[in-house]
């Protein structure tokens, strides 16, 4: 009965305020990151866990300040150049396509109004800009993450208390497994993002694509969204490659394909050998569903939500229901034959 009540509450929130649920889940991810980093410091340095959380936050602030002093002006200048040069590259690409007989028909179909509907644009922005706006949501995420990292026991006990007494022991185990799954996923994802950013930067720099550092940063950030993120990251790089000529554009495509292949088939499998591993078809399906329903924020959170859902199914329905069912006598006899 308690599980049915929790499920009903979640469904109602998803129907009437889905953006709130996504913001809260993002805050929980931030809390998992802060808490996991603090636990690592506590084990290595013998620090108190709460003190470890503040050390992690202080380290992040110091890194941001150093970045702001040393690199932010350069990155901001490159972003400004990127915003100026991408429209020029698009115009140059349109001129090149228009030279061919099939170019006019293709360009007519590739207008912004044909590619993006008003409804889709509103959906993509809605999950981020509703409630208190993007900046307000970011502040809320950070505070949720901070409070969860500082006192995880309070919130864990609160969730467990909503279960029936007979389910609380199992619920605690499942909740801990979900947290561990998110920790492993975050560790693997952050490491993969860093490698993708560096390799993209070096590859584009080597073939002569302008603004390679900022394109590498974009690739690293969008690598948070598997499968779809790398495609989005490749668009500005390939467009800037076209501004240098078709050969550079093809080489840029090769760089993005090579980095994505290396990330998908070498880096991520090596990192996730003992981490969380999700079937690619499940990730794509979750991205399609979440992106359609909740826009860009749903798309970004599709993978960790899929990891949580898979863990719930495995630890509750499969392990605690299906595996406890007694096999049918006929099926046992058939398997012996």
Write a short abstract of this structure.
The protein has 337 residues and is mainly α. The protein has helices spanning 2-16, 18-45, 49-70, 72-98, 103-109, 112-115, 118-129, 133-150, 152-161, 168-207, 212-222, 229-244, 246-271, 280-322, 329-336. α2 (18-45) packs across α10 (168-207) and α9 packs across α10.
Structural summary, described in words:
The chain has helices spanning 2-16, 18-45, 49-70, 72-98, 103-109, 112-115, 118-129, 133-150, 152-161, 168-207, 212-222, 229-244, 246-271, 280-322, 329-336. The protein is built from 15 helices and no strands. 26% of the residues are buried. Helix 8 crosses helix 9 (152-161) and helix 12 packs antiparallel against helix 13. Mean pLDDT is 76; it is low at 112-132. With 337 residues, the protein is an all-alpha fold.
Features:
single chain, 337 residues, mainly alpha
Low-confidence stretches: 112-132
- How many separate domains make up the residues? 1
Shape, principal axes of CA atoms: globular
Q: How much is the radius of gyration in Å? A: 24 Å
Helix content: over 70%
Q: How many runs of DSSP E, i.e. beta strands?
A: 0
Distance between the termini: 42 Å
Task: Enumerate how many helices there are, as a single number.
Answer: 15
Which structural category fits the helices and strands? mainly alpha
């Amino acid at each position: 009965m308690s599980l049915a009540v929790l499920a009903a509450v979640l469904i109602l929130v998803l129907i009437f305020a889905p953006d709130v649920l996504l913001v809260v889940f993002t805050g929980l991810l931030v809390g998992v990151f802060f808490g996991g980093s603090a636990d690592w410091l506590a084990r290595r340095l013998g620090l108190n866990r709460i003190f470890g959380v503040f050390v992690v936050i202080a380290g992040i602030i110091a890194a941001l300040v150093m970045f702001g002093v040393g690199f932010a002006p350069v990155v901001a200048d490159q972003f400004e150049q990127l915003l100026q040069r991408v429209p020029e590259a698009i115009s140059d690409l349109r001129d090149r396509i228009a030279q061919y007989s099939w170019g006019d028909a293709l360009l007519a179909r590739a207008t912004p109004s044909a590619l993006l509907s008003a409804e889709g644009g509103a959906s993509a922005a809605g999950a981020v800009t509703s409630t208190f706006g993007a900046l307000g949501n970011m502040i809320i995420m950070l505070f949720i993450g901070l409070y969860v990292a500082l006192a995880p026991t309070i919130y864990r006990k609160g969730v467990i208390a909503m279960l029936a007494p007979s389910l609380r022991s199992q619920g605690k185990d499942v909740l801990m497994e979900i947290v561990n799954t998110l920790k492993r996923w975050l560790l693997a994802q952050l490491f993969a993002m860093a490698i993708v950013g560096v390799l993209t930067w070096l590859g584009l720099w080597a073939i002569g694509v302008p603004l390679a550092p900022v394109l590498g940063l974009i690739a690293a950030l969008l690598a948070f969204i598997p499968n779809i993120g790398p495609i989005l990251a490749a668009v500005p790089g390939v467009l800037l490659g076209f501004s240098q000529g078709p050969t550079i554009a093809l080489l840029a495509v090769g760089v993005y394909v090579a980095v994505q292949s290396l990330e998908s088939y070498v880096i991520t499998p090596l990192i996730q050998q003992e981490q969380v591993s999700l079937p690619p078809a499940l990730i794509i399906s979750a991205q399609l569903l979440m992106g359609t329903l909740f826009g860009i924020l749903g798309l970004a959170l599709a993978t960790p939500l899929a990891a949580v859902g898979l863990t719930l199914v495995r630890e509750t329905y499969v392990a605690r229901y299906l595996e406890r069912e007694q096999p049918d006598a006929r099926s046992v006899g058939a398997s012996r034959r």
